[in-house]
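User: Run a structure prediction on this.
Assistant: Running it now.
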Amino acid sequence: MSVARPETAGKTRTCPHCKATILESLTICPGCLHHLRFDQQAAKRQVAANSALRVEGVIEHPKTAKDPWEYFVVIAVRNEHGEEIARQVVNVGALQSTEKRSFTLSVEVMPLQTLAVPKKPAVAQPPAPAPRPPAPAPRPPPAGATARPPASAAPAGAASKPAAGTTAQAGAAPKPGSGQTAPPKR
């Protein structure tokens, strides 16, 4: 399932590969050409973008000049009032007497569309553990029986009886009259 997410026109993000500021709706970075998202509809939209402007040019060092020439490439963007809204130096360099450089400036445009974002499945919460019943209260000794001291009060070196719910060690014989049975030998 997917949910349509409305896009904000001109919303930007940073390419994780080349760190360029790019449109959020792009699936391929126009700077480094890395794939950013695997969304077929958005990829078709980007491929169908129209080239609104494309300028190509070549500069060549004149054969008559012997000294190298330096160059710098600047791109400036202006709004409808002629106000500069962005300016960036793209590249600088030098041309030796036998060198030339070619430059291409292109502006691609595409309509804004909503992106289909896959809906994340709900994460099932593990069931809460069932509450344990309270431990039964200790039984009072039968009438006429002598009370035994607790295990913590036993003298040092005296053998103690295993706690309730535990089994005797394998191979150990139970004490007569203890009410415990020996585990089967394996």
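Residues 40-47 form the longest helix (8 residues).
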